[in-house]
Structure formats: structure tokens, C-alpha cells
Amino acid sequence: MTTAALQTVLTVPRRFRGPEGMANGGWISGTVADALNGLESAVEVTLHAPTPLETELTLEHVANSATLSHEGTLLVEAIPVAEHLSGPGFVPFNEAARAEAGFPGWRGHAFPECFACGLREPGDGLRVFPGPVEGADVVAAGWRVPFTVADADGVVPASVVGAVLDCVTGWAHFQPGESALLGRLTLQVNRRVYPGGTYSVVAKATGREGRKLFGESAIYEVDGTMVAAAKATWIAPR
Fold it and tell me: How far apart are CA 174 and CA 109, in angstroms?
């Protein structure tokens, strides 16, 4: 007996780009993970190829996996994992906001148009600018959630949460002008994010192996409650 697949068509608006011409890796990871199980538990998302913008893509959910493909080419795959993500530790909002002054992207940004960490207009991009936290081995930013990212129910969708958790792990490694592409993101969302809210975004570099860069991140409410967490694998250019 086979399980019927649920197929839908997905098109990524240009607004949600990361590197020019492709979807932000965290945004597409959150989208596919949410299609799998609504992020009721941790989901591991593997990015096999860049996701094009403004293009009709096939999102398929069957049994314990969700995939995104284009004309038969697998782009993204999500599977549930039995894992609890603990995050890199809380940084108070005011301290996280102060760390933004040290954001390496001010001095050189490989993807200045990125939806999450790019230098775009307020309300258009998320403007999450993580910088080093004094006396700690983490980077952090204060996230002031724009109302322009709310869904029809007035909450922030998993796609946007994924975008925030993604980019910050890269900046835990990057110096000005450096870049890499997201290869895998494991996501866990515990609570809703609300537009107009203020949150601490924190990330930590957890290792490097050849071209692979590893990191972990989390979003915290002002009282230190962890809203969502992720761990990421990035692939640096040759």
C-alpha cells in the first residue's frame, strides 16, 4: 500500500531572497518544515540546490517527509528528527541591541539584499544585524519584529522565524565581506512570534570541518523564554 502525496504549488516572492536570485535559505527551510508538521517537533531541512524566485515549484508532503522541487530537480527536503535544541544561551535585549554596532556586515556584506540580515528598508527586510557580545563567545542582535511580516492570523510565520535563525548562525563565523551558503538547518519552534514584539536573537559558532561551518541559534523573549532554536551547517565557497 502506498501513501498518497499531498502536492501544492509554491512560488517564492522576490522579497524573500537571500543571495541575489535565490530564496533565503532559512525562509525556505521554515516554509518546507512548516508544511511537514507545523514544527510541532524538530525538523531537519537539507538544501540540495538553490531555490529560484518567482518560479512555480512543487511542494510535496508524503508520510514523514516534505520536499520542494522544480521540474524534477530536488531543491529542499525536510524530515522530522527526535532532537531537542537547547540554544546558545540568553542575552538580554538591550545587550543584544548594543552588539549590533559590531555587526561585520556594516564593513562588508556579501549579500546586502538578504531578507533577514541585509541592509534593506525597515519593514521590507528584517534588519537582524548580529554582532559580538562583550565577554561572551556569541553574537546577538535585538529583533524588532515589523508588522509587515505577519500572516493573516496576525502572527509571524515559520518561514520568517527560519530566516532569522539561519542568517545569525552565519554571522557567528563571518568576518566583513565573507559568505557561505546554508546547507542544512534543523529547526524547533516552541512559541509564536508576534509582530511589534522585541526579541533577542543569539548565535554561536560550534565548529568547522573543511568548508563546513557549524552554528546554533535561538530567539528569546525579553524574559529569557526561548521561542525557537536551530542548528545550522553552512558551506563556504571553494
Answer: 10
Choose among 143, 154, 156, 87: nearest CA to 116: 143
Pairing of strands 6-10, 73-80: unpaired
Type and span of the H or E element at 50: none
Please state the length of the chain: 238
Question: Dihedrals φ, ψ of 29, to 5°?
Answer: -65, -45
Whole-number Å distance between alpha carbons of 230 and 216: 6
What the chain holds in terms of domains, given with CATH numbers, is 6-80 (3.10.129.10), 93-235 (3.10.129.10)
List the pLDDT tens digit at each of the 238 positions of the chain: 345 568 899 999 999 999 999 999 999 999 999 998 766 789 999 999 999 999 999 999 888 899 999 999 999 999 999 988 999 999 999 999 999 999 999 999 999 999 999 999 988 999 999 999 999 999 999 999 999 999 988 989 999 999 999 999 999 999 999 999 999 999 999 999 999 999 999 999 999 999 999 999 999 999 999 999 999 999 999 8
